[in-house]
Amino acid sequence: MGKPTGFMEYEREAPAESGPLLRLAHWSEFAVPLEEEKLQRQGARCMDCGIPYCHTGSMLSGLAAGCPVQNLIPEWNDLVYRGLWREALERLHKTNNFPEFTGRVCPAPCEGSCTVGLNGSPVTIKSIEKAIIDRGFAEGWVVPRPPAVRTGRKVAVVGSGPSGLACAAQLNEAGHSVTVYERADRAGGLLMYGIPNMKLDKSYVQRRVDLLAAEGVTFVTGTEIGKDIPAAQLQEQFDAIVLCGGATKGRDLVIEGRELDGIHLAMEFLSRNTKSLLDSGHEDGAFLSAEGKHVIVIGGGDTGTDCVGTSLRHKCASVTQFEIMPRPPETRQPGNPWPEWPKVHKVDYGQEEAAAVQGDDPRRYSISTKRFVGDEAGRVKELHTVQIEWRPDDQGRFVPVEVPGSEKVYPAQLVLLAMGFVGPEPTVLEQLGVERDARSNAKAEYGRYATSVEGVFAAGDMRRGQSLVVWAIHEGREAAREVDRYLKDSKG
């Protein structure tokens, strides 16, 4: 611990961002990196406390508390403070295969569990992590490291999202021959097509995919297992299979008028936008455009925010975001103590941009959509809504109750459903005969990852349901360990 009093001497300083109106003119990342001296001061704020909850990676009250990949945060904070950047990178890569992803898109549960945050502002852990890996690539420290020896065992990884990539990286490092199958035309899964470019520039995703390929991982894109290749064929050709296909089945809103044109699941909107951007800079027109339209985004999470930011870059007429839950409080409540994830009101980039354009936050809380109404051509033209209150029922469970007289009509020519995901698509699981849990996920015990089918494992959202990128990386790494053990045990 190089600076015992750093947390008392220095204030939290996060990287600046270009102004909302400026960044709406492009699709590039907009964070402005801190200078090295300022980053060192931020590293000095880490207390190196006796019990660093920042890297515990536990689940409290259903939410992540601390870092799921258990990054050695106090160690690399101190190394940054002392200017030992290469050593900091080595510490970071010990636990996290892809800090360039988590440093950009992770909501940073580590900061929610930072001890400094008990009485002040937490350490800027996420921005320091990003700075370490970005410097590592800039200095040429991150290079392909193929294994010296191959085991002769072959593993198929289905899905190239964060869990699939992490699993492939670890298995390849152990010397196994890994083939990753991806149904999209580019590898990366959620990282490539589910997260907009302004949050995660796709050059960083491709750079890591290229690095893994240089280390010996084989990527087969444009190939859907269960459709283009029968799942049983993988069982014949590989010694083990790891299912990392994600929870890609979107939650729908089945109400009156759902069949109207102009109503889409959020991922269709986001993925087509990014593909068109990468393919042609939107010149091909192969995306759902929000230009000139009144847009309603139903869902208040990160995906909803991404829909807001994307719609604004399309130059929509207006964008409004519906959230069925009440507005969160400004500060932690007694029932949400540290080190739990702080359930407080936050303003993300999309809301900040909408406020700059429209004059106010686009979110409307405690609101429920009753029906969609269309025009003569069968296209959506408006939404009918009602305000709700959350009240306890006879069993003490809080349920939504409509507020009389609160009905309202919103104009809309584009509606985006961003209400999360209900589970994985079933094709591969059905073809392999994998047992599923009550939520339709692949049934596999946490920490072991083995499914009901011999030699078939599952990790990430396909096993645990919709979750964070950092949890997917954690599960991909752990599943690789279990597959490696399986292959060694079955070698004879």
Write the layout of secondary structure elements.
Blueprint: H1 6-9, E1 16-17, H2 20-23, E2 31-32, H3 36-44, E3 58-60, E4 63-65, H4 73-81, H5 85-95, H6 99-105, H7 109-112, H8 125-138, E5 154-158, H9 162-173, E6 177-181, H10 190-194, H11 202-214, E7 218-220, H12 231-237, E8 240-243, E9 249-250, E10 263-265, H13 266-280, E11 294-298, H14 302-313, E12 318-323, H15 349-358, E13 363-365, E14 367-374, E15 380-392, E16 398-402, E17 408-411, E18 414-417, E19 421-423, H16 427-432, E20 456-458, H17 461-464, H18 469-489
Parallel strand pairs: 5-6, 5-8, 6-7, 8-20, 10-18, 11-12, 11-18, 12-13
Antiparallel strand pairs: 1-2, 3-4, 9-19, 14-15, 15-16, 15-17
Helix pairs in contact: 3-4, 4-5, 4-8, 5-8, 6-8, 9-18, 13-14, 14-15
Could you explain how this protein is built, in words?
This protein is of the alpha/beta class. The chain folds into three domains: 6-138, Orthogonal Bundle (Fumarate Reductase Iron-sulfur Protein, Chain B, domain 2); 154-249 and 423-489, FAD/NAD(P)-binding domain (3-Layer(bba) Sandwich), CATH 3.50.50; 252-419, FAD/NAD(P)-binding domain, CATH 3.50.50.60. It has 18 helices and 20 strands. Strands 7-6-5-8-20 form a five-stranded parallel β-sheet, with helices on both faces. Strand 11 (294-298), helix 14 (302-313) and strand 12 (318-323) form a beta-alpha-beta unit. Helix 4 (73-81) crosses helix 8, helix 5 (85-95) packs across helix 8 and helix 9 (162-173) runs parallel beside helix 18 (469-489). The model has no long low-confidence stretch (mean pLDDT 96).
